[in-house]
């Protein structure tokens, strides 16, 4: 009996394996530091929870419009015009999805024909290429380089365009490196897409997680004349720490896509959880000051991690400009010092010591000698875990980093999100 062949092309993911190992250790009482997964530790703002409870009490718990409740689509449309500069003609150009992950699935499944190629950054958060494959497409990795701040190199992109190329996928701020695409780079990507008639799929899930001096630019704002070929994707998971509530967004004014997306929304989810949508509306319309508080906290954690990883022979950390992941390039001399064969084994050994990480090859073909540490867990966990990480990577893991101990307050906060 043969089962779905397309799923043979999809992996369960190395990060999930490490996460489950850490969660098992955690359940047994081992102290663990959840640097493998990116799930904001922050609480959902109180007014959002109030709006959810109110909507429940008012009986807003029945089937809702497939594409999203009109109030939320309208509020998102206004936000996308005002904040992102997307000249979308109407709220009908906005679709509410089950998180940005589902937005990626719906976008690629609406757009791609079997064998269509999509240019993607290498490294890239794995689920993007998996969703391209699920839709029958072929992800074509374009290497990003430390020396170029992990921004797309437009000349490299151009070299990989073939008659089968359908779209360029971009993600800024970028998971896993924390790169933020500059306006000039975005303009170059845009001009290439326009010259070759390619779609632009812009994942902006981390638009609000930026470090001082950085600006988020939506590629769709550069040229209203090409907006018809741009699909912009957003999430409530990072901006409002609503990761478990699962609200994402697709913005497109392309008529053919707009006719197709509702079919997939109906067949996959038949509308996002009504209460989560009322919560999302309150998040958009309510006070936004938690965004600054969150940014300050991420800055603190980022700097704790950077300090911990500074001056380690064989490890070169990139200073993230956005997002909550730290990407480090590794040199074989680090492996030799630590007695491991590669980044995969290093990640395994770190996990045995209760320290989460994600090995580079989980993110692409060109990054075997790299590792990612997420710092979206709470600040106390970063404060305690970062020195232990340093000790381990220096080859001097402290006994307490590997020993069993009782769970701390930091542990109680750890979640099992991807
Ligand atoms: C680049 C990127 N896009 C999209 C997502 C999906 O976010 P969600 O499905 O929680 O909205 C993530 C999650 O980590 C991500 O890293």
| Cα Rg | 21 Å
Largest beta sheet: what is the strand line-up? 1-7-6-5-4-2-3
CATH-defined topology of the largest domain: Aspartate Aminotransferase, domain 2
Bound molecules: pyridoxal-5'-phosphate
Number of helices: 16
The helix/strand class is alpha/beta
Mean pLDDT: 93
Q: Identify the overall geometry.
A: globular
CATH architecture of the largest domain: 3-Layer(aba) Sandwich
**How do the SSEs run, as a string of H and E?**
HHHEHEHEHEHEEHEHHHEEHHEEHHH
Uncertain stretches:
398-418
What is the helix content?
40-55%
- Secondary structure: number of strands: 11
The CATH class of the largest domain is Alpha Beta
Provide tags for this entry:
418 residues, alpha/beta, Aspartate Aminotransferase, domain 2, 4-stranded antiparallel beta sheet
Question: What does this entry look like structurally?
Answer:
The structure is a single chain. With 418 residues, the protein is of the alpha/beta class. It is 41% helix and 13% strand. The protein has 2 domains: 5-43 and 289-413, Aspartate Aminotransferase, domain 1 (Alpha-Beta Complex); 47-285, 3-Layer(aba) Sandwich (Aspartate Aminotransferase, domain 2). Strands 1-7-6-5-4-2-3 form a 7-stranded mixed beta sheet, sandwiched between helices. Helix 7 (183-196) links the parallel strand 4 and strand 5 (199-203). Helix 2 (46-57) crosses helix 10 (274-285), helix 3 (70-82) runs parallel beside helix 10 and helix 4 runs parallel beside helix 5. The relative contact order is 0.18. Bound molecules: pyridoxal-5'-phosphate. The site of pyridoxal-5'-phosphate has 13 residues, from helix 4.
